[in-house]
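DM from R.C. (forwarded with permission)

"hey, sorry to bug you on a friday — could you get me a structure for this? deadline for the figure draft is monday and I only need the backbone to look sensible"
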Amino acid sequence: MESYLRHRVCLASLLVLFAVVQQGSGEVFSALTHFSTLIQAEERLVSELQSYIATEQERIAKLHTLAHQVKEAVESSNALGHEEHISHPTNAFLMVRRFTHDWKNLLTALRVKSSPEKAKPSGLAKVLEELSDKFPSRADVVGTAAALLRLQDTYKLNVSKLANGLAGSVGQRLSLADIFHLGVQAYNDELYKHAKKWFEQCLRRIYLGEVDEDIPESLPVDYLSYIEYKLGNLPRAIRWSKKYLETYPSDNRTIDNQAFYLGQLRKELHMEKNGTKDGAKEESEKERKKRIADDVWLSERGNYKELCRRPIAPPDHVAEKQICYYSNRNRTPGLILNPAKVEVAWVEPTVLLYRDMISDAEIERIKELATPKLKRATVHSPTTGKLEFADYRVSKSGWLSDEDDPKRFVSRINRRIEDYTGLTMSTAELLQVVNYGIGGQYEPHYDHARKEENAFESHKQGNRIATVLFYLSNVTAGGCTVFTKSNARIKPSKGDATFWYNLLPNGEGDERTRHAGCPVLSGSKWVCNKWIHEWGQEFLQPCKMAEAADWDIHIPPEHM
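My reply, with the result:
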């Protein structure tokens, strides 16, 4: 857009010059002396013409670059398949950036260029106008950028590799402008450690010769100065400030910041020399509780990310019970000829993995029915009990009832859940189908409502006693289901399902079932789940008041 405006300025200058020349009498041939005026005019015209050509060449070069990038993306998408191509985080981010920046700016420029008098807009302008209502929004840019930062944080991704398109599989390379945008996003989100890495990557690209006229070296330097101050690195903050002042020696903001950093550094050195602390005071009870809560949260976050990155070896008493067996659940009719393939994925809490519980045909039918219903996923507010959006759950979901499927695939799956679990679906919630977006996740949470919550007041069927989670796709990288209090980790495997009880047999919530869906690093993650409620299970799984009692899971006695 900027280059196009420069092109308009150059063109306007040329027109002004022509107008000036035309103001003469129009007769020069009769006296040679008048030709000198034309020579002077052409001197000015050729200068303006060269500027105009340079601006046009720059604009065309940018259009060629855009065309090359888009052609490369389209060829990759056709070779890999649309879903696999766009499931790579950098490919998705770049596509959203192109639509909200490059294509949008080009459309604006074409609108400026087109006059109302013109009968027909150009073919490109017409197509852009037709598709403009489908363009991603600013929120999509923020969302995809946040997803990349989330992946960087969770999986400790090397920024240099990520910028070159490597994250689980090969993607497109990020430009200097893309890298700078991610640095700004991290800065705005106060993720200063991540922002620092992106701005440092900006400088590496600049030092290697990559040029973007909108991103001079001074820009990331300015950000890095304040970032180092926020990270507590005062000497580095001072060095970056000095470097910025080499370019803008009169910048009052940076001069004031540098003076402040120097003052803070002298103060710290003085206190260190005298062994004193700045404003040390006794911690209040409220502050102590907040610090403890923050420590617990940080500890869980750390364990969650560690489990997402790699499995943690189970202790011996768990490993010895991780067995496989066939089960017909005391000769349940639906399992006599086709028994369940069961793996004990974990104990304490018991997490079962049902292999091949759902077929490819059923999966495709479920996805077909759910796709038109997909909306941004919500969570139950622990205070109001109402459904609301949350940053810790990034996905889209849709709900399916038996009546949604005339082919009866949904009712068949519900009946199979009853056969496998021995629980009734009459009071269960509808089948929820979920598709995770770029970096999609569901941070640590419980499926059941705790005592202080009223999350299921409207459901009126008791608490969520158990969960069945189906995996409708394989995931190239990331996307595991992890239990943060017990260290269980389940890798998605198409056609399989996990099952666990959320409540203890005495009706209390099982704190060990706190779990999460790790961010999807690469690939597409589809799941569907069934939340089973207490009411109706009284004679199928009777309560046991003893606190240490466990549920009847039907593990063969020889493996108990």
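R.C.: lifesaver. The radius of gyration is 32 Å.
me: no worries. The longest helix spans residues 35-80.
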